[in-house]
Design brief:
Layout lengths: L6 E7 L2 E6 L7 H5 L2 E2 H11 L4 E2 L4 E2 L4 E4 L4 E3 L4 E2 L4 E4 L5 E4 L4 E2 L4 E4 L2 E4 L4 E2 L4 E3 L1 E3 L12 E3 L2 E3 L4 E2 L4 E2 L4 E2 L4 E2 L4 E2 L7 E5 L2 E6 L2
Parallel strand pairs: 4-7, 5-8, 6-9, 7-10, 8-11, 9-12, 10-13, 11-14, 12-15, 13-18, 14-19, 15-20, 18-21, 19-22, 20-23, 22-24
Antiparallel strand pairs: 1-2, 2-3, 16-17, 24-25
Length: 207
Protein backbone atom coordinates (compact mmCIF):
# COMPACT_ATOMS: atom_id res chain seq x y z
CA UNK A 1 0.00 0.00 0.00
CA UNK A 2 1.32 3.44 -0.91
CA UNK A 3 0.41 6.98 -0.03
CA UNK A 4 -2.82 6.92 -2.05
CA UNK A 5 -3.64 3.21 -1.88
CA UNK A 6 -2.46 0.27 -4.01
CA UNK A 7 0.37 1.32 -6.29
CA UNK A 8 1.64 0.00 -9.57
CA UNK A 9 5.22 0.63 -8.49
CA UNK A 10 7.18 1.99 -5.59
CA UNK A 11 10.47 3.17 -7.03
CA UNK A 12 13.16 4.78 -4.82
CA UNK A 13 15.50 7.08 -6.74
CA UNK A 14 18.11 9.09 -4.87
CA UNK A 15 16.10 9.32 -1.67
CA UNK A 16 12.80 9.92 -3.49
CA UNK A 17 9.89 7.52 -3.52
CA UNK A 18 7.51 8.21 -6.38
CA UNK A 19 4.09 6.67 -6.01
CA UNK A 20 2.37 5.60 -9.19
CA UNK A 21 -1.20 4.74 -8.28
CA UNK A 22 -3.93 2.82 -9.99
CA UNK A 23 -6.46 5.62 -9.54
CA UNK A 24 -4.40 8.69 -10.48
CA UNK A 25 -7.14 10.04 -12.75
CA UNK A 26 -9.36 10.60 -9.70
CA UNK A 27 -6.70 12.51 -7.74
CA UNK A 28 -6.22 16.25 -7.59
CA UNK A 29 -3.30 17.73 -9.51
CA UNK A 30 -1.54 18.47 -6.22
CA UNK A 31 -1.66 14.88 -4.99
CA UNK A 32 -0.68 13.43 -8.36
CA UNK A 33 2.62 15.29 -8.15
CA UNK A 34 3.45 14.94 -4.44
CA UNK A 35 6.61 13.01 -3.68
CA UNK A 36 7.76 11.67 -0.34
CA UNK A 37 11.43 12.41 0.25
CA UNK A 38 13.30 11.40 3.37
CA UNK A 39 12.78 14.88 4.81
CA UNK A 40 8.99 14.51 4.70
CA UNK A 41 9.20 11.20 6.52
CA UNK A 42 11.54 12.75 9.09
CA UNK A 43 9.13 15.66 9.69
CA UNK A 44 6.21 13.27 10.13
CA UNK A 45 8.23 11.09 12.52
CA UNK A 46 9.28 14.12 14.56
CA UNK A 47 5.76 15.50 14.78
CA UNK A 48 4.27 12.11 15.64
CA UNK A 49 6.02 12.38 19.00
CA UNK A 50 4.62 15.87 19.62
CA UNK A 51 1.03 15.75 18.36
CA UNK A 52 -1.97 14.11 19.96
CA UNK A 53 -2.44 12.00 16.82
CA UNK A 54 -0.82 11.89 13.39
CA UNK A 55 -2.23 9.58 10.73
CA UNK A 56 -0.14 7.56 8.35
CA UNK A 57 1.32 9.03 5.16
CA UNK A 58 0.84 12.65 6.18
CA UNK A 59 2.91 15.06 4.05
CA UNK A 60 4.34 18.02 6.02
CA UNK A 61 6.08 20.81 4.13
CA UNK A 62 8.90 23.01 5.38
CA UNK A 63 8.31 25.81 7.90
CA UNK A 64 5.11 24.30 9.30
CA UNK A 65 4.47 24.92 12.99
CA UNK A 66 2.20 23.12 15.46
CA UNK A 67 2.12 25.54 18.36
CA UNK A 68 1.67 25.89 22.14
CA UNK A 69 -0.18 22.65 23.04
CA UNK A 70 0.60 20.22 20.19
CA UNK A 71 -0.78 17.24 22.11
CA UNK A 72 -4.21 18.83 21.60
CA UNK A 73 -3.80 18.71 17.79
CA UNK A 74 -4.97 15.59 15.90
CA UNK A 75 -4.33 15.00 12.20
CA UNK A 76 -5.79 12.17 10.09
CA UNK A 77 -4.12 10.00 7.50
CA UNK A 78 -2.90 11.30 4.13
CA UNK A 79 -3.28 14.95 5.15
CA UNK A 80 -1.16 17.49 3.25
CA UNK A 81 0.13 20.51 5.20
CA UNK A 82 1.82 23.08 2.98
CA UNK A 83 4.64 25.52 3.68
CA UNK A 84 4.13 28.21 6.29
CA UNK A 85 0.99 26.77 7.88
CA UNK A 86 0.48 27.54 11.58
CA UNK A 87 -1.81 25.30 13.64
CA UNK A 88 -2.23 26.35 17.26
CA UNK A 89 -4.09 24.98 20.26
CA UNK A 90 -3.92 28.22 22.20
CA UNK A 91 -4.57 26.81 25.67
CA UNK A 92 -4.61 23.47 27.46
CA UNK A 93 -8.35 22.96 26.84
CA UNK A 94 -8.39 23.88 23.14
CA UNK A 95 -8.62 21.15 20.48
CA UNK A 96 -7.79 21.07 16.76
CA UNK A 97 -8.83 18.14 14.57
CA UNK A 98 -8.05 17.76 10.83
CA UNK A 99 -9.66 14.89 8.96
CA UNK A 100 -8.15 12.38 6.56
CA UNK A 101 -7.00 13.48 3.08
CA UNK A 102 -7.58 17.17 3.79
CA UNK A 103 -5.18 19.72 2.30
CA UNK A 104 -4.04 22.65 4.46
CA UNK A 105 -2.75 25.31 2.07
CA UNK A 106 0.22 27.63 2.13
CA UNK A 107 0.32 30.00 5.12
CA UNK A 108 -2.96 28.88 6.69
CA UNK A 109 -3.47 30.14 10.24
CA UNK A 110 -5.65 27.83 12.36
CA UNK A 111 -5.89 29.09 15.94
CA UNK A 112 -8.19 27.39 18.47
CA UNK A 113 -9.03 28.73 21.90
CA UNK A 114 -12.08 26.45 22.16
CA UNK A 115 -12.12 23.94 19.30
CA UNK A 116 -11.67 23.77 15.52
CA UNK A 117 -12.76 20.65 13.65
CA UNK A 118 -11.97 20.31 9.93
CA UNK A 119 -13.51 17.26 8.27
CA UNK A 120 -12.10 14.75 5.82
CA UNK A 121 -11.37 15.49 2.14
CA UNK A 122 -11.45 19.28 2.56
CA UNK A 123 -9.51 21.73 0.42
CA UNK A 124 -8.22 24.74 2.37
CA UNK A 125 -6.51 27.14 -0.08
CA UNK A 126 -3.57 29.45 0.74
CA UNK A 127 -3.77 32.31 3.24
CA UNK A 128 -6.93 31.13 5.01
CA UNK A 129 -7.41 32.36 8.61
CA UNK A 130 -9.56 30.24 10.92
CA UNK A 131 -9.86 31.56 14.48
CA UNK A 132 -12.49 30.64 17.06
CA UNK A 133 -12.08 33.67 19.33
CA UNK A 134 -12.47 37.45 19.37
CA UNK A 135 -11.45 40.11 21.86
CA UNK A 136 -14.26 41.76 23.76
CA UNK A 137 -14.80 45.41 22.84
CA UNK A 138 -16.13 47.08 26.00
CA UNK A 139 -15.67 50.84 25.62
CA UNK A 140 -14.28 51.56 29.08
CA UNK A 141 -11.39 49.09 28.91
CA UNK A 142 -8.37 48.78 26.65
CA UNK A 143 -8.92 46.00 24.12
CA UNK A 144 -5.59 44.36 24.91
CA UNK A 145 -6.75 43.94 28.53
CA UNK A 146 -10.08 42.33 27.67
CA UNK A 147 -10.65 38.57 27.65
CA UNK A 148 -11.38 36.55 24.54
CA UNK A 149 -14.85 35.35 23.63
CA UNK A 150 -14.70 31.88 22.08
CA UNK A 151 -17.01 29.48 20.24
CA UNK A 152 -15.98 26.36 18.29
CA UNK A 153 -15.72 26.17 14.50
CA UNK A 154 -16.66 23.12 12.46
CA UNK A 155 -15.97 22.56 8.75
CA UNK A 156 -17.74 19.54 7.27
CA UNK A 157 -16.32 16.82 5.05
CA UNK A 158 -15.50 17.77 1.48
CA UNK A 159 -15.74 21.54 1.93
CA UNK A 160 -13.65 23.89 -0.23
CA UNK A 161 -12.39 27.10 1.37
CA UNK A 162 -10.82 29.35 -1.28
CA UNK A 163 -7.85 31.67 -0.75
CA UNK A 164 -7.77 34.57 1.70
CA UNK A 165 -10.95 33.51 3.51
CA UNK A 166 -11.45 34.40 7.19
CA UNK A 167 -13.69 32.12 9.28
CA UNK A 168 -14.82 33.57 12.59
CA UNK A 169 -15.85 32.01 15.90
CA UNK A 170 -18.94 29.86 16.26
CA UNK A 171 -19.33 29.09 12.53
CA UNK A 172 -20.35 25.71 11.12
CA UNK A 173 -19.66 25.13 7.41
CA UNK A 174 -21.64 22.20 6.08
CA UNK A 175 -20.52 19.17 4.12
CA UNK A 176 -19.44 19.97 0.58
CA UNK A 177 -19.93 23.72 0.96
CA UNK A 178 -17.80 26.19 -1.03
CA UNK A 179 -16.56 29.59 0.23
CA UNK A 180 -15.36 32.03 -2.43
CA UNK A 181 -12.00 33.81 -2.23
CA UNK A 182 -11.59 36.86 0.05
CA UNK A 183 -14.75 36.11 2.03
CA UNK A 184 -15.38 36.70 5.73
CA UNK A 185 -17.61 33.99 7.20
CA UNK A 186 -19.48 34.98 10.37
CA UNK A 187 -22.56 32.72 10.13
CA UNK A 188 -23.33 29.09 9.41
CA UNK A 189 -23.24 27.80 5.82
CA UNK A 190 -25.51 24.84 4.94
CA UNK A 191 -24.21 21.77 3.14
CA UNK A 192 -23.42 22.09 -0.59
CA UNK A 193 -24.13 25.82 -0.75
CA UNK A 194 -21.74 28.38 -2.28
CA UNK A 195 -21.13 31.56 -0.30
CA UNK A 196 -19.00 34.63 -0.87
CA UNK A 197 -18.46 38.22 0.18
CA UNK A 198 -17.65 40.21 3.30
CA UNK A 199 -19.65 39.27 5.22
CA UNK A 200 -20.32 36.10 3.23
CA UNK A 201 -23.82 35.50 1.81
CA UNK A 202 -25.27 32.72 -0.29
CA UNK A 203 -24.45 33.09 -4.00
CA UNK A 204 -25.38 29.66 -5.30
CA UNK A 205 -25.59 25.92 -4.76
CA UNK A 206 -23.59 23.00 -6.07
CA UNK A 207 -25.45 21.12 -8.78
Amino acid sequence: MGFFGPQISDIPRGGVTLYLCCNQTTMSQLRQHLKFRWIHRWRAFRQSNRLGALGSNTWIDKRVEFMRFPKSISIGEEVVVKEGARVCACNANAKVSIGARTTIGYHNFIFASSGIEIGADCLIAPFVYIVDSNHKTDRLELINRQPNETAPIRIGDGAWIASNVTILKGVTIGEGAVVAANSVVNKDIPAFEIWGGSPAVKIGERE
